[in-house]
Amino acid sequence: MTGSTETVRKVASNTTVRHYLARVAFGLVLTIVGLLFALPLVWLVLAPFDATPTLSLEWPDWTLDNFARLFQNPYAMRSIGNSLLLGVGTMIIVVVLGALAAYAMSRIRIPGRDGILYGLLLLSSIVTGTAAMVPTFQIITSLGLINTYTGVLLVLAGGILPTVIFILKDFMDSIPKSYEESARLYGAGPFRILRDVVVPIARPGLAFIAIWTIVQVWGNFLVPFILLRSPDLQPAAVLMYTFYTESGQADLRLISAFALLFSAPVLIIYFVVNRRYGFRFHGGIKS
Amino acid sequence: MAGINATRLVKEYPGGVRGVDEVDVEINDGEFFALLGPSGCGKTTLLRSIAGLEAISSGQLVIGDRDVTDAEPGARGVAMVFQDYALFPHMDVADNIAYPLRIKRVKRDDRRATAEKVADGLSLQGLIERRPGQLSGGQQQRVALARAVATRPDVLLLDEPLSNLDARLRLEARTFLKELQRDLGVTTVFVTHDQAEALALADRIAVMKAGKLQQIGSPREVFQRPNNTFVAGFIGSNPMNLVPATVSAGAIAIGDAVSTTLPPGTEDHVREGQSVVWGVRPEYLRWTTADEPGAIAAEVSVVENLGASVLIAVHVDGHKLQVVVPEDHEPAPGDRGYLVPTGSKTLLFDAESTERIG
Ligand SMILES: Nc1ncnc2c1ncn2[C@@H]1O[C@H](COP(=O)(O)OP(=O)(O)OP(=O)(O)O)[C@@H](O)[C@H]1O
Ligand SMILES: [Mg+2]
Q: What is the spatial distance between Cα B275 and Cα B312, in angstroms, rounded to a whole number?
């Protein structure tokens, strides 16, 4: 009798111990993974203020010199402006055309509509990728749009639009048709309906698309790198590539300072939008 | 203000389904007109065709004195309340009500004033700044009505306006709707599959089945003199008893043993041996335990309590009939007795065409 209670107790304490150990191990793994992700971010924040930054993480020798040098570089600040221009430009094209196309796709019956959408989506992942680099270059050259923002905007927007149409169509599918029919009965035309009814209801989706597009363009290196020649047109992602010392080494002092500046706008946008819209996305995703 | 006149109206959906099939209907100016029928019979399709939300396949539609067969929905002078109300979720009540005025470029202050006046008229005071999501079903329904009448349309179309309300609220809203319609005097077409609602509200009712009109008439007409067995079975809170029978020796023979008299006015329209359907409403059958002339022998199978009365199901020679019996006199299942039809209220239909005889 006593023996059996003893065993029960032993087994019970055994499982508690095992449970406890498992939790500790799990926490440990998570900590390590978390650290792995956090280290580059710490570097991003510390290195710009270090007089002699290296690729390893170390306590900085505090200075603002790196930024002073960065601001002396004639292209640095301009490239951030260029990035903004490209990001906002692409965003406007993508949001306007994407909203119109998604609305049409959602409301008009075309045979094979979903096939078209999936096809576009599939192709678009190739268009802006490395595989289509040469043809993209050739097309833009023959259009005479090399070294122009028009060319870059076209290629960037073209690559992003299918995904956007796909997401927004789903969003607009969830808006009841009776809203528009009701507006139509009161004499509203298609653009009026789009402006008064569809866009306000789809606003969270549009906001998400806008931010997402800017972030995509902001980090895009390949397209502007291929299509732009003049250094004063380069966006930040490409310019960073040119920061070398005379000896041909990567200039970590400039790169680290620039990297911090480069990541700031995206972070700011994210926080502002997250506060305003909270990235609510329920309308577009059917549960 | 305007009447509606549809001539041989057809709406054919892609794939060949005729939602509305050769419908002729004339709705008078200021009339409260109900479209009644079972699910899928084409009520909504007809309503949407009148509104212009569905392109008419063939036929002609006139509203007032204008041919609007091909007119844009916005140019027909019609307003519509949708079954889901279709209130814009991002606008408050005032903006919702004033939206039609905004499209007509009425000035902001005038819009606001009109919206407030209309809202007051529909007892929506104090709710004007709320969003539709913050309103109850009944309030939403009134906002939708307010928006529809704010522009003083010639024609008001309602698609099952009461179906989203619970039973008690529905009765309230019914009275409310009737008063509103009378006050405005606007030609109103409303869709319902609830025959009681149609009987209670409408000046006239059109009963539809599979896209075709079955009968148009006042509530009394469709109730008392249904054109065919379909209308007879559809109208009335307890469906009419429809019993297959034959004409035999100037009377109606139900099976071999049972017979009853011909309904008045049908004698000259039937021939000996004709297959017919004898129709009598459960309310017009009297249950008695004593045999009397013209009575039909029956056996009770089920007894259902309706409150002030009792609905009993009885077997007559293999056919099932329903009878409404006043409370306190209800028989028990298994009882045998007699049914006495109120002769003047019985009807006769041809078995083949299902049309009423006489
Ligand atoms: N867009 C459409 N395409 C094809 N067929 C349709 C379409 N809309 C309706 N129908 C068909 O037309 C017929 C009439 O439909 P309708 O919606 O008018 O019925 P209803 O009388 O309003 O029914 P309920 O009481 O269920 O609302 C039905 O058979 C329906 O399947
Ligand atoms: Mg319907």
A: 27
